[in-house]
Amino acid sequence: QVQLVESGGGLVQAGGSLRLSCAASGRTFSSYVMGWFRQAPGKEREFVAVVTRSGVDSKYADSVKGRFAISRDNVKNTVYLQMDSLKPEDTAVYYCAAGQIYYTEARRYDYWGQGTQVTVSL
After folding, report:
1. CA within 20 to 30 Å of 93's CA: 12, 41, 54, 115, which one?
2. Confidence check: pLDDT of 121 > 80
3. Ramachandran bin of 66, using left for φ above 0, alpha for ψ from -120 to 50, beta for the remaining angles
4. How far apart are the C-alpha atoms of 40 and 94, rounded to whole Å?
5. Pure H helices in 1-121
6. pLDDT above 90 covers what percent of the chain?
7. What H or E segment, with its residue span, contains residue 49?
8. What are the Cα distances from residue 25, in Å, to 28, 41, 79?
9. Per-residue pLDDT tens digits for 20-73
10. Which residues, 6 or more positions from 48, have their beta carbon under 8 angstroms from its beta carbon?
């Protein structure tokens, strides 16, 4: 089992940047595929990015491609989401998740953090 704790959210102006972190407990972090998802008010949770166990490969939602970057540090048991050129439509609660399969579907993930709020103002 793994516990996930996100941090780094906040309020930023459009065009700005934020870096989210997700710290995982346990010694099996490197055995999990790690993903980032987000949920805006009144909307379903949606896929943002996923990274493989080694960190070599990643996938992104079309809406964030070229602006966001996912990475991981298997020594620090942490996954990151660098978010640049932020837009108001990026406003949401951002969640990290751990799973066994390199999927973009939220239901495929086994463990979730509590989320961190990102608000992008005009």
Report:
1. 54
2. yes
3. left
4. 9
5. none
6. 97
7. strand 46-51
8. 8, 29, 12
9. 999 999 779 999 999 999 999 999 999 999 999 999 999 999 999 999 999 999
10. 35, 36, 37, 38, 60, 61, 64, 68, 70, 81, 94
Helix (H, G, I), strand (E, B) or coil at 31: helix
61 C-beta neighbours (distance < 10 Å), count = 16
What is the average pLDDT value for the chain, to the nearest integer? 96
Contact 81, 36 (CB under 8 A): yes
What average pLDDT does range 3-7 have in this prediction? 97
Q: Which residues of 66-82 are buried (b: 16+ CB within 10 A; e: fewer)?
A: eebbbebebeebbbbbe
Predicted confidence at residue 120, as pLDDT, reads 98
Cβ contacts of 23-26, under 8 Å, gap ≥ 24: 23/76, 23/77, 23/78, 24/77, 24/78, 24/79, 24/98, 25/77, 26/1, 26/2, 26/77
